[in-house]
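Entry:
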Amino acid sequence: MKKKYKIDVDCANCANKMEQAAKKTEGVKDAVVNFMALKMEVEFEEGYDHKEVMPRVLENCKKVEDDCEIFL
C-alpha cells in the first residue's frame, strides 16, 4: 500500500535525509520525498499497518532533521 503525506522541511538536502531515514524504517518498502511539492510518498511492506509505521518514520526523520514535520 502507498500513502502520501504532506511534509514541512527547509531544504532539498534535508528532504533527502528524510527520505533515507524513512527507507530505513521497519515496515517501509520504499519512500520518496518531493521537496518542491512538500510531499512524501511511502510504500509499506505487506502486513504492516501505516498507522503504526508512520510514527516511527517521523521519529527516524527527526533524528536526522530535527525541525522537519510529517503531517500524519
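Helices lie at 12-23, 50-64.
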